[in-house]
Predict the structure.
Amino acid sequence: MTGVFTINGNERTIEFDSGATLLEVLREAGHVEVKHGCGQGECGACVVLLDGNPVNSCQVFAASVRGRSITTAAGLGSRLEPSPIQTAFADAGAVQCGFCTPGMVLSTHALLENTPDPTDDEITEALSGNLCRCTGYAKTIEAVREAARRLREQPSRNPGGKR
Amino acid sequence: MRLHGGGTGLLRNRPASGTLVDLSLVGFSDTSVDSDTITIGSTATFASACKAVAAVQPGHIIALALSHAATPALRNRITIGGSVALFPPWSSIVGPLLATDGRVRLVGHDAGEVELSEYLATRDFRQGTAIESITCARETEAFAYWYEFRRTRLTYPLFTVSVLTRLAGTEITGCRIVLTGTRGRYARPVHLEEEIVGSAADAVTIKPSQLETIIPDRQGFSSEYLTHVASVEITRGIRKAATGKSGSGGGS
């Protein structure tokens, strides 16, 4: 079947198997920043934003989200122009192997869109579906605190758009 | 025709049939709250239902339970109908719905409205019948307490506790207790509910033997331990009502 998706702001028409998950479709389409972890919705490596809300893309039939807007970690920033969240993760040392980082960054983005100054409990809850097997979580929480501070100090924000 | 649920369960047990029809756009996704009743469409996600209920009654047991369920990303996909139809042992919604007189509106072969307990006990309702919506009571006069026991924050709950307590002063005038994850999937200790009416909420102590059920051995925890924890959490829930607050707890 064929579906039109808006991926990171770009409209794309993609052919895929009707039983394919969004994770499978995105990776087949070259979005390998969306990681295939457990495939059961438990690790959070495959998290993307669906119309701004985090979802486990391995738990979404691609056919059911045709026409919707999808944001991957590459939609937040690039290697040359990273978002404040991405730089905060790097600066805080919250990245080791990096496999969980795209999902972590997107969950952080979703949190800070609605909660610009989160408590540690709110950060922990927001990232509760993102597992890391390398660093533990202390530096991750530190990174989210730092990202929140940087975003609050930005002179202007562009809600819903690229940060 | 076989109807499968729901937002995430469908992918865990991919059906073998050749054609799948997506029901997510048929209009069963709204949540409405009136003076006495909450109605949640079957394809409403945990996140959307939680937001709608919490906006009107933040202390409602549905809002307490759904705000802790699974993870934020999964709450955006798990549907109420799927969770009720599949009723996994870790379900966060079935206990609160049973505690608030949940009823299930069905469409298809067995169209009509049945009590949630009847729906859960009748496997025939899974063949050719779909859930349209689920209703439950507002219970605006009751203090709610909800608890889930997880081995770690990252694992599924082994059991859940839902407690609704009505008071006159600190005296208990009514109580509703539901445990899920017990032998037989869920239990409502009616004798215990009746026994504690008239007691002072801040002096109640529930013993494991009063629960009329046991929670089986799971993940290295003995049945005795889990059942003891359940009795402690029920005690805590009733005593919390005496403070004039609803609330929730969780973790191992």
Remarks:
- Chain A is about 30% helix and 15% strand.
